[in-house]
Design brief:
six-stranded parallel beta sheet, alpha/beta, Dihydrodipicolinate Reductase, domain 2, Rossmann fold, about 260 residues
């Protein structure tokens, strides 16, 4: 794809999808057009044609398709896109906590001669973690700390009174697989960390509702043969979706830019 304008197909035009399109429009490093947007509900002021089915989206012949619609979209469309020979970038990486889905998508990518691209999103240090995996990892820990309102509408509602907590409260502690499946809209970073490092079952995860913070804080620590490392990100929440970080959309735009540029960082 390097050296030519990208035709991008979008799946989903909610908070993240709109933020990604806005980031692409303001990226000076990327020559791209949105070929079409697949959306299940009516869309107002869309920058490109809106289609209601995956066949219509594929018919626009995009160079790459970007998923911004949640775990269900990865399950519903991932294999079809990859088998059609079109690279697919997914934001909802937590969907891959389902081992059967991960196997099916890997096989579809191989059979379709396409690539499944995982956007690192709001978490820095993923490249270092993946590099340290080559040397050998002993332990990987991730803590996601967000304001209480970011956990509303999740399993946490049944555990704590999110509107009235007055101190940091752990709402989940365990492994990345369970975290991704229990908190699908909040644990994509945990899933990314797992896939880059020790895997879903060996990655330690803690999720915290913290009334003392106004941003989404991601803390990653890992140790192994290459040494010990700590990374902390204090990211502003997306204005349209507090469950995700504003950096997520910019991360996707940067990754797309790298696919189209002759020099990649």
């Amino acid at each position: 794809m390097s050296g030519k304008a990208l035709r991008i197909g979008m799946i989903g035009y909610g908070g993240i999808g709109r933020s990604v399109v806005d980031a692409l429009e303001h990226s000076v490093d990327l020559d791209a057009t949105i070929a079409a947007i697949l959306a299940r509900s009516p869309v107002c002021n869309a920058p490109s044609p809106v289609v209601s089915g995956i066949a219509e989206l594929l018919a626009t012949r995009p160079d790459i398709i970007v998923e911004c619609a949640g775990h269900d979209a990865v399950i519903a469309y991932g294999e079809t896109v990859l088998l059609a020979g079109i690279p697919m970038m997914i934001v909802s990486i937590g969907a891959l906590a389902d081992p059967d889905l991960l196997v099916r998508l890997r096989e579809a990518a191989s059979n379709g001669n396409a690539r499944l691209i995982l956007a690192a999103g709001a978490m820095a240090g993923i490249e270092a973690l993946a590099a340290a995996k080559i040397g050998g990892l002993d332990r990987v820990c991730y803590t996601g700390r967000k304001p209480p309102r970011a956990w509303q509408g999740t399993q946490a509602d049944a555990m704590v009174d999110l509107e009235n907590i007055d101190e940091p409260t752990t709402i989940y502690e365990g492994n990345a697989r369970e975290a991704a499946l229990l908190y699908p809209k909040n644990s994509n970073v945990a899933a990314t960390v797992a896939l880059a490092g020790l895997g879903f079952d060996k990655t330690e995860v803690r999720l915290v509702a913290d009334p003392s913070v106004t941003s989404n804080i991601h803390e990653l620590s890992f140790e192994g043969a290459d040494g010990s490392f700590q990374v902390s990100i204090n990211g502003k929440p997306s204005l349209v979706n507090p469950k995700t970080s504003a950096l997520t959309a910019h991360s996707i735009a940067r990754l797309l830019g790298g696919l189209a540029q002759p020099i990649v960082i």
